[in-house]
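Postdoc handover notes: sequence design on the structure in folder B. Input tokens:
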């Protein structure tokens, strides 16, 4: 029985070295592994969709670099539901399933937390970008799937490009729920802060900045 299984995706299980992004992943992995082992815990690592892994033989799984979930979302949710029956998920299924879908922004707004101005467009619903921007008096915008990460299908669209991008947006909406957000220049210039909270206690923050090409 393994105490903790750290989860990744297949692409980052045994990647080729020499890439700074990959090296950072492994640095974080080794730091976490050493910290857990320092507490007397045994640690394993595998991809979340490993068909040979016996999830009943690990006390808990910790989600790390599972960065293909948004491309295989229905499969990922089904997997979560099955594995939850066999071991402890950290975080629990209820929190994970809420957090991976950006509709959670509505919940935050309802609690009085200020969010980026956002317009939600459900899958299959016909709304034109030009109408959305006119309704909210937006100029430059960002479109992204409600379930996404790592700039997956995420586009910054300047005001004069909106007519040219209508076709792209309509195609995306036929496949998935989408968000249209007012572009925030400060995110590009300064980045955005992610605040870390453990058991209700704030511990630290990370400043995330867009890399070239995002």
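Designed sequence:
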């Amino acid at each position: 029985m393994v105490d903790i299984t750290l989860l990744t995706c297949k692409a980052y299980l045994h990647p080729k070295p020499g890439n700074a992004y990959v090296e950072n992943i492994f640095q974080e992995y080794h730091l976490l592994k050493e910290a857990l082992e320092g507490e007397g815990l045994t640690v394993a690592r595998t991809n979340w969709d490993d068909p040979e892994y016996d999830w009943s033989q690990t006390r808990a799984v910790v989600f790390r670099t599972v960065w293909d979930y948004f491309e295989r979302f229905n499969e990922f949710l089904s997997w979560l539901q099955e594995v939850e029956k066999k071991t402890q998920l950290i975080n629990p299924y209820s929190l994970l399933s809420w957090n991976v879908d950006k509709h959670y922004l509505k919940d935050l707004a309802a609690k009085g937390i200020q969010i980026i101005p956002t317009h939600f467009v459900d899958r299959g619903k016909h709304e034109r970008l030009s109408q959305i921007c006119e309704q909210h008096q937006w100029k430059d915008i960002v479109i992204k799937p409600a379930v996404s990460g790592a700039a997956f299908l995420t586009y910054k669209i300047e005001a004069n490009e909106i007519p040219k991008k209508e076709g792209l947006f309509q195609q995306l909406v036929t496949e998935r729920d989408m968000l249209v957000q007012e572009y925030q220049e400060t995110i590009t210039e300064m980045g955005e802060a992610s605040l870390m909270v453990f058991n209700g206690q704030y511990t630290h923050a990370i400043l995330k900045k867009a890399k070239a090409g995002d």
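Context for whoever picks this up: The domain at 2-100 is CATH 3.40.50 (Rossmann fold). Don't rerun without checking with the PI first.
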